[in-house]
Structure formats: structure tokens, C-alpha cells
Amino acid sequence: MIITKYNAICNLGDNIEEVFNKALNGDAGCFELRNSRRLGCINPPLEEIKEENYNTRANQLILKVLKPLEIETLDKISTAIVAATTNSGVEEYETSRNPKHFEIGNPAEFVHKYFGFTNFYTSVSTACSSGIKAFSIARLVLIQLPNFLFTDLIHLKYYPESRQIRSVKTDAELISEKVQQLL
């Protein structure tokens, strides 16, 4: 796997260069003092997302990170999305009661729809290890994409001649066994 585009946003900065420079220089001005504790907070202006199902802080942060990478120029058919998240919109759900806000798959679905991709997408949420786990899932997708994809309880098969992915219903045990073989 080769990573050709990357970016970051965190309490150290709004882009990879700013994060790197502040970390290198030991800049601690990016922490707020609350109840005698220093907390890192991300406070850049974020774009409002028009589609209510995707208007969450997590997706706004994702959009802020992805827009500079110009991923909309990638091939819409062959690009798969694997998003890592620890919070898809739980806080928003507490006030909106919109069940789409707390779905783990919401960030990947948002990127998929917002940028017009038509291929596979999934979100990974394994707490602090989500980011690294997303790389291992992406690797599996790259290896398996020409043959099979698995998501939830649906077995998806890729047909190269028509460049289509079609679902074939199967039982959870079969999928679980196949995924275990891949891991």
C-alpha cells in the first residue's frame, strides 16, 4: 500500500504542516485549561453540512481534512472509502434524536456521498486503535476488491466485466468465517 495524499487536524493545527511544526517546537498554546487540566481542543471554523443526516462535528472535521487533498479528482468507481472514527455523532444525537447521527458508518457514508464515489465504503470504530485498524481494513479491501467484499450481513461480489458490485445474501457464520480467514 502506498499513501500518496495525507493530512491531519488536531489541537496542534488545521493541517499536517502546522501540526508538525507545533509538535517539533513543543508549542503547548493549543491546550485549554479546564478544571486544572490541560485539554487539547480543535477549534477551527468548520463548514456546515447541508444534509442533516451528515451534519455532525465528526463529518465537519473530516471535510476540513479532505478538501485540501482534492479527493474529488479521484476515480469515482475504483475508489473505496475506509474511515476511522471513535465518535460518529453521538453528541449530536443527544439533541437531534436523528439515528443517522450515531451510526458508526456515518462518516464513511458521508464521504462516499459527498464526493460522489460509487465503490465500497465502511467505517472502523475500535476506540483509540481505529486509525491503525483502518489501514489493515483498507489493505484487505485492496487485496480482496477484485474478488469479494464483505459488509454487515451481505456478501458483495465484484464483476470486473461490468465494473459492478452486486449483493448476494448469505448467513452471518459464512461471512464471519471468511473474514477470519482474511485476517
The tally of strands reads 7
Summed over residues and divided by their number, the pLDDT gives a mean of: 78
* Class by SSE composition: alpha+beta
Shape, principal axes of CA atoms: globular
Mind explaining what this structure looks like?
Helix content is 34%, strand content 17%. It is of the alpha+beta class and 183 residues long. A hairpin with a 2-residue loop joins strand 5 and strand 6 (154-159). The strands form three sheets. The protein has a three-stranded antiparallel beta sheet, with helices on one face. It has six helices and seven strands, in the order αββαβααβαβββα. It is globular, with a radius of gyration of 18 Å.
Short note summarizing the structure:
By secondary structure, the chain is α+β, with helices and mostly antiparallel strands. The protein has helices spanning 16-25, 57-66, 90-96, 106-114, 130-144, 172-182; strands at residues 31-34, 37-40, 81-84, 121-124, 148-151, 154-159, 164-169.
What distinguishing features does this structure have?
7 strands; 3-stranded antiparallel beta sheet; 17% strand; two-stranded antiparallel sheet; single chain; alpha+beta; 183 residues; 6 helices
